[in-house]
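Page 47, continued from p. 46.
Same chain as before, 390 aa.
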Amino acid sequence: MTTCDVAIVGAGPYGLSAAAHLRAANGLDVRVFGEPMSFWERHMPKGMLLRSPLAGSHLSDPSRSLTLQAYQKTSGNQITAPLPLYRFTDYGRWFQSQAVPDLDSRKVDRVEKNGAGFRLTLEDGETWKARRVIIAAGIMPFAWQPPEFKHLPFTLASHACAHCELSRFAGKKVAVIGAGQSALESAALLREMGAEVEVFVRAPFVRWLWRQKWFHTFKPVARLLYAPPDVGQAGLSHIVARPNLFRRLPRPVQDRWGKRAIRAAGAAWLNPRCAPIRIKTSTSVISASPRGERLSLRLSDNTERFVDHMLLATGYRVDISRYPFLTGQILESIRRINGYPQLDSGFQTSMPGLHFLGAPAAWSFGPLMRFVAGAEFASRAVTRGILRKG
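Result:
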């Protein structure tokens, strides 16, 4: 059995950033398992643009030398805003080649407690022993599909994360469910690829993130109102960008402000692309049933639609029990709240030596953990925590 000090499960922005910070700490043997940037490449639609600003799209290393600008200078690939998905994915792979050149792309099939440490079983059966494990395995297992649609075959209804290539729907009639960036951008891409699209939104209106001239572009004012990651509304953005402050707020305030900071909305630059699309607000799909090779949708206004496919841009709901590699023994030993692990200041669970990064850390540290921008804070905090406890 091969051993290491820290094993990181996941090679997305959080896993790679944590590895870069931990490897800068003298004497730590850190291993990263997983395919780099796989979620972004395989579960986001081609042609997508990142809603996050460039300032909130960097992966993190301790010297801040592996930024988007450094990637541009080294590779010659132009960085533009909004940032195209393919460019961000390529940047992530470049970051990995610089910070974690010996990454192990094998999947981890099982993580279990083993004495004072942990045993990891890889997809080919090889086992590793680690004193500490960091779970940075992303949100794919948390894709949420409303229960009333779970009986439908994949050919007729699917979650948005199931597709990286939307051109398969060219010439088809597609219903998109949702009001956030994923729903609106998927709808725009579908239309641009030749599909007939209609979007259904439960809310009475679609929220767009318009950038006010004085609030966002006049720098002295913008700096006062918005932190660089630009997560949350004016003022709230600065609190969200300081997770140690956010986590000290009364729990009801955290819950209320956390929801407000990530409420469904579309980037302003997406609005013109959605203008030709029929968006039906104050409308829910209350039932869906196959009709031959098509799908019949019954709407809350008592009308009906027949479509070739229903795309569910219905978001993600964190529940770490859905990570298939975590054993029942580990799950039963972790203090959890509504599917989230409760974490200490070093992102450690109630099981010593086991840490979580990314969206599962959002209950403990706030909504910034749902964005790439949270990788720097999380990486520095988990590194401090590990070094402090040895």
